[in-house]
Design brief:
The protein has about 280 residues and is an alpha/beta fold. The protein has 8 helices and 13 strands. The chain has a single domain, classed as Metallo-dependent phosphatases (Purple Acid Phosphatase, chain A, domain 2, 4-Layer Sandwich). The chain has a 5-stranded mixed β-sheet with strand order 3-2-1-12-13. The protein has a 5-stranded mixed β-sheet with strand order 4-5-9-11-10, with helices on one face. It has a 3-stranded antiparallel β-sheet with strand order 7-6-8, with no helix packed on it.
Amino acid sequence: MAVFAIGDIQGCYQEFRSLLRKMKFRDDCDTLWITGDLVNRGHDSLSTLRYVSAMGPSAITVLGNHDLHLLAMAAGLRSAGKGEKDLRKVLKAKDCDVLMEWLRRRPLIHHDEELGYTLVHAGLSPAWTIKKALKQAGKVEKVLTSDKINRLLKKMYGNKPDQWSAELGKTDRWRYTINSCTRMRFCYADGSLDLEQKGPPDAGGPGLKPWFDVTRSHQGLRIVFGHWSALGLFIRPDVISLDSGCVWGRSLTGVRLEPEGVVQQWSAPCAGVSS
């Protein structure tokens, strides 16, 4: 059995299927990790959701910021923007309710102690050990699967708080957890989040570093993530960044994970950028 990991699909369904064929993925014996953001900006978010949800336990995907935004739209808390026509197709689909029920049950973090990797969309708060990260993510996941989901989805938007504290209230804890797991790119030396900068690692500005380059309480953990297309494919012993910007006209990237590290890489070029 092989474990594969791929970056943000964002509705790039053709490229996703092409990448699976290149990797010779077999859903009867292999496992696929997806870094989240299954939807938005690509050509076919609806087919992507249908296909991944039908893969059952052979596909493990974490929630990304676009996935959470789609849940908020489905709940009537947000309207589709000018560039979100692909999401409108999802919302109008006959099986939308079934797909949203499946989506809201995806985790924020997947941690495989035996394999030695942790999967998350954007990153892990530098202030957290893996134990703390899983605990806080679990609290958000519990609300997402409860009748209080709309309260969370309504309150999750915003950039504050930017630092973790045990004194934070419930809503602030939710927002900080979601932001660090699904939106973070840069941090200051003290671990506070900057959620404005979206460029490459060397364009963060004074005092800012990529979140994985500041002192972290989970130092040494091997983290597989996406979200940061301006960073692109980036592999070093402790981090594997897989968002290679397919939705922006570049490619969708996949790797095979083994306890000793990444042993193979594949890519599927963009078939065309959505207007």
